[in-house]
Description:
The strands form 2 sheets. This protein has a 7-stranded mixed beta sheet with strand order 3-2-1-4-7-6-8, with helices on both faces. A two-stranded antiparallel ribbon has the order 5-9. The protein has helices at about 25-35, 60-65, 80-90, 110-120, 140-155, 175-185, 195-205, 230-250, 255-260, 265-280, 280-295, 300-320; strands spanning about 15-20, 45-50, 70-75, 95-100, 105, 125-130, 170-175, 210-215, 220. It is globular, with a radius of gyration of 20 Å. It is an alpha/beta fold and about 325 residues long. The chain folds into 2 domains: about 15-225, Spore Coat Polysaccharide Biosynthesis Protein SpsA, Chain A (Alpha-Beta Complex); about 230-320, no CATH class.
Amino acid sequence: xxxxxxxxxxxxxxxxxxxxxxxxxxxxxxxxxxxxxxxxxxxxxxxxxxxxxxxxxxxxxxxxxxxxxxxxxxxxxxxxxxxxxxxxxxxxxxxxxxxxxxxxxxxxxxxxxxxxxxxxxxxxxxxxxxxxxxxxxxxxxxxxxxxxxxxxxxxxxxxxxxxxxxxxxxxxxxxxxxxxxxxxxxxxxxxxxxxxxxxxxxxxxxxxxxxxxxxxxxxxxxxxxxxxxxxxxxxxxxxxxxxxxxxxxxxxxxxxxxxxxxxxxxxxxxxxxxxxxxxxxxxxxxxxxxxxxxxxxxxxxxxxxxxxxxxxxxxxxxxxxxxxxxxxxxxx
Length: 332
């Protein structure tokens, strides 16, 4: 039976919505409520919530949710996002898989827009819009992140945009399930640290002729709630996983550096700062201490430059950590 007591349809769904989650019950409730408001026929999709080590009542919430669409919860020990996505993909019955992060709130026409964007092209992967919800009193970090996402989506929406590695994300993405299965879905090696599992997946999809497109109508609002310390840790881990990515796909090294390299005076300054960070975490501790005060008194443009410099530095801190074994795969 579906959540509202109707018999489960006999025919397979057109789309399987896969949502990896851990410890975010309230956001899952918001997401499920949004899926219940979809304009498409509820018989056309199923939702698979993969509880990745969740022990906060997420499983019980999903099992008791009253909705017209097919809904399942698959629980597994904590293994990370890549593993959770793979678990959902393996359980999916749909022709298409739509991967949706647990901090997303899809608009009513979200799923219809994904299906329409695919058309008759079996080699298409659709990226949906992921604008960040900016609440009153949002931190400067959240404001800066929202501005970055807005610029990125505006670029993707340009009619003549040529998609690159850096464009890809899978927090709101749809693709034929057989395309994911044919390349082995996500690489579980990227489950333990933050970042680049998306780019690694796209590297293999691109190699199989998969083409990207962007749908502004396939919009899911992103509930972005990261603190500066968490953001800093994840940015450093993104540098580590970038080295993992370039070791697995050496041909991507130039593309990775192209959007993370830095240049001019900053490159020389960062070289010195990286030497400091190799020897001590004093710089990171200082940033954690001063960031709240500094960014609230800086003009918005200056705060944006501050976050860019910090993110660039922390990314290369992670690169240096990963390359400590002497194998250099990323060169600025």
